[in-house]
Amino acid sequence: MSQISPPSPPSTPRVDYGEAARRHHHDAEMLFTAGRRGNADHLYGIAAECALLGILRTSPTAAGLFNADGALKDRERRKHIDVLWTQFCKEAAGFRLGTAVGRLKEAYPAKAQPSKSQYRAGQPGPANPFQGWSVEQRYLSEAAMATEVTDEILEKHRAAAKRCLTLLDELRPARSAGAPQ
To answer: What ranges does the record give for the region Disordered, renumbered to this chain (predicted)?
Structure first.
């Protein structure tokens, strides 16, 4: 009688933040084009969040933050983009990602009086374009969404998500479909 072997684990981690960022951004663009502003805005935030985590994964010094499946180990580190942006910018230099923060600073200069959380070693971090974005938006009524997601906010989130994806691609170029990232 032959014994059936258990399936071998996948050769790549199950969680791929870069791929997820690209997928969410693509869907956000489709929703934006279709006039579904609220859901597009929501996915721009998720896309930017995944892109920043994908950037973090490029750092060998941050490898210990992720499990074998590719996901963040520590649940306390799992933040959405409204909080993750500032956290990422504050910690990035320690993970040798100072160049990434520098590029974000160029695109999103700090306000004249940045908040305490935007300081690192006396230097203000990039202004958080997702301040005020909330994952809870997904529960809003159409009327509330129309009021809270203005054209200005939507464009700001759209541009910031695109900037995060561009930075991710500069640090870790896209691979062909099916190839490990």
So the answer is: 1-21
